[in-house]
Amino acid sequence: MSTIVHLLRHGEVHNPEKILYGRLPGFRLSERGQRQALIVAESVAAHDIVHVVASPLQRAQETAGPIAGAHRLDVRTDERLIEADNDFEGRRVSVGDGALRQPRHWSKLRNPFLPSWGEPYLEIAHRMLGAVYRARAAAEGHEALCVSHQLPIWTLRRFLEGKPLWHDPRKRQCSLASLTSLVFEGEELVDIVYSEPAGATDPKVTGA
Q1: DSSP assignments along 171-200, one per residue
Q2: Residue 103 falls inside a structural domain
Q3: What CDD domains does this protein map onto (predicted)?
Q4: Is residue 203 part of a domain?
Q5: Is residue 120 included in any domain, yes or no?
Q6: Which domain holds residue 122?
Q7: Residue 206: is its pLDDT beyond 60?
Q8: How far is residue 4 from each of residues 43, 65, 157, 193, measured CA to CA in Å?
Q9: CATH classification at residue 101
Q10: In-domain check, residue 139
Q11: What is the predicted pLDDT for the residue at 86?
């Protein structure tokens, strides 16, 4: 029995200050982000989606709304889909800018393989995997859609592909409003398919 769990990254966020907002409340979709959510909803309108679940953060809930509405479903919430915890939350972190220029923050960079500035990659992968298998069970024989965030989705993908969880953030294949679709036969993962229904975006853009 085939089941597909789509991992959808939320759309663009209104973030004029260009900060790393992480888990901070009150960050909504921008107008572009709202259009991206509608584009994705249209692209999956004919899919057999029977379960929609999202991170508790506003941007994820807003991205899930049009898709759930098109399939006459409620948006469920799973805390395990939330953005990664990060000690630089609320600060600007572009190279040569903001918090990274301040010596008092340099100790947080001591171990990029963990990483030392936030939630460990392995913990992210494990909680995301739990959310995926719950969604797979809820949609068995059909399709589920989970709205999450760039780092958690990319970390889970690398975990499933057996790759090191440490990576170059500038090379993440996880554009805004992109789909990373996990294909299961029974409980066995047999394929990972990536698509960008709303187009590609630059992974180097902070706070996107």
Answers
A1: G----TT-EEEEEEETTEEEEEEEE-TT--
A2: yes
A3: HP_PGM_like
A4: no
A5: yes
A6: 2-195
A7: no
A8: 15, 19, 14, 10
A9: 3.40.50.1240
A10: yes
A11: 87
Tokens of 43: 């692209």
Rounded CA separation 205/208 (Å): 6
pTM: 0.92
Strand partners, 52: 75, 145
In this predicted structure, the answer to whether residue 120 has a pLDDT above a threshold of 80 is: yes
CA–CA dist 206, 20 (Å, integer): 7
Mean pLDDT calculated for residue range 61-88:
96
pLDDT tens sequence across 129-187: 999 999 999 999 999 999 999 999 999 999 999 999 999 998 999 999 999 999 999 99
Three-state secondary structure call for residue 4: strand
Distance in angstroms (rounded) separating the CA atoms of residues 19 and 21: 6
- C-alpha distances out from residue 106 to 2, 48, 95, Å: 47, 48, 13
